[in-house]
Design goal:
309 residues; mainly alpha; 2 strands; 2% strand; transmembrane; transmembrane helix; EamA_dom; DMT family transporter; EmrE-like
């Protein structure tokens, strides 16, 4: 198996792990009518739990300290993946269903590809970008078709929740791009670990301050445990390694299937429903992923020497 294929498989594994994040965050945070853990507690708690695990992991693997030039990228990864994305999504998920949130974040692959192309000086072909744009347009159209049904009970709060979800998408794209660049010169599992460890001075006090006072259901605690250990930690091991091996621009397109995986998980976990339109859009988006990964992607150096990417 070549590096690109291995990267795509690892990226798919990461996406599979991440696809449970929104449904389980919704389960952990509850709804407006039946609130559970607060969004701040979930965001800071998952960062603190994963940060402590990362500290022991770095010590056990005798991880070398990052080079001076790596720290800006580690900071960018931490701000996006440890703070921005978890905080914005955790707060928003109390006001929207997992299906709605999944389609709102469906444009993440295009944003990640844009960041990755800029950081890694990659030059995707026109056909590759066309697939990325078509896939993102499909999920955007799906979002508009279903937004009313998915969030009609949330009133004006939906506007703010959607804005938070878009901010979360931007944070994730930046962190994915920065983390992938780091994973090209240091161990992929060490990338997220260092990003989590440097966040501990903020995440630990924040989670203690936001500790829940009321009675929380076991389901909410189990959901919190998943997003802390898998979404915040183990999933990134596979994801950043996949981006480093297969290329950020190409592997990021696997994310196009994540919204529909999240919807499928939301059915048994949250009792949400799928219809024929959802299935049709899902198949169309998955088709763009397989077409897009066959499109050429080259580096700036190859472009300069006249090699067709």
């Amino acid at each position: 198996m070549n590096a690109t294929s291995k990267g795509l498989w690892l990226g798919t594994l990461g996406v599979l792990i991440f696809s449970l994040t929104l449904p389980l965050t919704r389960m952990a945070v509850g709804s407006v009518a039946q609130p559970q853990l607060s969004g701040v507690f979930i965001a800071m708690g998952r960062a603190a739990v994963a940060g402590i695990l990362s500290l022991f992991f770095l010590l056990a693997t005798r991880a070398p300290r990052p080079r001076r030039g790596d720290w800006p990228l580690i900071l960018a990864t931490s701000l996006g993946a440890v703070f921005g994305f978890p905080l914005f999504t955790s707060i928003a998920m109390r006001y929207v269903e997992a299906v709605h949130a999944s389609v709102m974040l469906g444009v993440l692959p295009l944003a990640t590809a844009m960041v990755g192309a800029w950081l890694h000086r990659q030059r995707p072909s026109a056909g590759f970008w066309l697939c990325a744009v078509v896939g993102s347009a499909l999920v955007a159209a799906f979002s508009m078709l279903h937004a009313g049904n998915a969030s009609s009970s949330a009133g004006m709060g939906v506007h703010w929740a959607d804005a938070l979800l878009l901010l979360a998408m931007l944070c994730a794209a930046v962190s994915y791009g920065a983390g992938a660049k780091l994973a090209g010169r240091m161990r992929a599992d060490h990338v997220i670990c260092w990003a989590l460890v440097i966040a501990l001075p903020l995440s630990l006090p924040a989670v203690l301050a936001a500790w829940p006072q009321g009675v929380i259901t076991p389901q909410a605690w189990w959901a919190f445990g998943y997003v802390a250990v898998f979404s915040m930690w183990i999933g990134f091991f596979a994801w950043y390694r996949g981006l480093a091996l297969g290329g950020t621009v190409r592997v990021s397109q696997v994310q196009l299937i994540q919204p529909f995986l999240s919807m499928l998980f939301a059915v048994p976990l949250l009792g949400e429903t799928l219809d024929a339109v959802t299935v049709a859009f899902g198949l169309a988006v998955i088709a763009t992923v397989f077409i897009g990964k066959k499109m050429p992607v080259g580096t700036a150096a190859k472009m300069a020497t006249g090699v067709i990417p």
